[in-house]
Amino acid sequence: MISVQHVKKIFPAKSEEVVAVKDVNLEIKEGEIFGIIGYSGAGKSTLIRMFNGLEMPTEGSIYIEGKDITRMKESKLRLARQEIGMIFQHFHLLWSRTVYGNIAFPLEIAGIPKKERDERVRELIQLVGLEGKENAYPSELSGGQKQRVGIARALANKPKVLLSDEATSALDPDTTDAILDLLVDINKKLGLTIILITHEMHVIKKICHRVAVMEKGKIVETGPVLEVFKHPEQPVTKRFVGQVTDAEDMKETVGRLLEKYQSGKIVKLTFVGEVAEEPIISTLIQKQLIVVNILHGNISHTRHGAYGTLFIHMDGKEEEVRNAIQFLLSRQIGVEVIEHV
Ligand SMILES: Nc1ncnc2c1ncn2[C@@H]1O[C@H](COP(=O)(O)OP(=O)(O)OP(=O)(O)O)[C@@H](O)[C@H]1O
């Protein structure tokens, strides 16, 4: 549905030009929730803004349903933009208009008659769960409610694609989850394709089907979310996966334990899919002649199954510890012996 081909964006500057996006290629399917993750300055905003012509690439093409939006005349681009809604971190609402007025605004611009407009706004208010708030002004709303207005406004002209530029980054964790649930809901109900950029792996894990990792203007890794969790290849991807699988203080704890336990091994186990729900550790203790000390555990639920990590210390005779590792490997569990942090 969306094809990004050899896209490059250079910003001219007095001293040295900035190459914000370097030869990006992506294929995004209809109805997919596709996440682009990267640290600040990676080029995510520049890339997503090129999907609706807010920025134009210096080189390359972006096809949306077969039409190259980078080569459209302004009048055609304006029409094409109605097919692509966008939501923002800081909402970008009209402060002098009510919730109703904000959602009606793009319909007024599109020349939709009043009666039809009223109906559509009412539908949208219901869809995003803002019943009763029609006459409130943005200043009277919570962050989550403001983003609901942003989503309703973005959906007003029935777009096929929704672009989300860090839409939950200004929200607390519970509100973030509620907005992410809403995005999944509209993706399912409307079959809407969603492309989002974020610096939080939690967002990717919770709602995306596929992810692309961006670093210094390039896509360095891409794949289905669960696959990327299982086999992160690039160091930057490993850091992002670590955001949700490893506790902040884990490194310190493991460092201390490595010093404390002179015998045995500290291992990081990774479980994927159904294995994550099996009682592997109790079987391990029953079958192997080792002592197991559980240090830290975590299960993440992605759209395509569960992904678990567990740090344990296994103590016992060297051979028994080796057997235990073999047992775990035979159960399709990832085993990484931690030698140092
Ligand atoms: N209009 C502009 N003029 C010049 N340089 C720009 C412009 N917009 C972005 N850049 C530069 O392009 C690079 C990528 O910026 P971009 O905002 O796309 O990154 P990002 O991954 O979205 O980061 P953040 O999350 O901090 O916004 C940065 O070096 C930035 O300074």
From TrEMBL:
The keyword Repressor does not apply. GO terms for biological process: amino acid transport. It holds the Pfam family ABC_tran. InterPro entries: AAA+_ATPase (IPR003593), ABC_transporter-like_ATP-bd (IPR003439), ABC_transporter-like_CS (IPR017871), ACT-like_dom_sf (IPR045865), MetN_ABC (IPR041701), MetN_ABC_transporter-like (IPR050086), NIL_domain (IPR018449), P-loop_NTPase (IPR027417). Coiled coil: none annotated. GO terms for molecular function: ATP binding; ATP hydrolysis activity. It comes from the Bacteria. Keywords: Amino-acid transport, ATP-binding, Cell membrane, Membrane, Nucleotide-binding, Translocase, Transport. SUPFAM superfamilies: ACT-like, P-loop containing nucleoside triphosphate hydrolases. Residues 2-241 form the ABC transporter domain. GO terms for cellular component: plasma membrane. PANTHER family: AMINO ACID IMPORT ATP-BINDING PROTEIN, METHIONINE IMPORT ATP-BINDING PROTEIN METN 2. Belongs to the ABC transporter superfamily. This is Methionine ABC transporter ATP-binding protein. It comes from Fervidibacillus halotolerans.
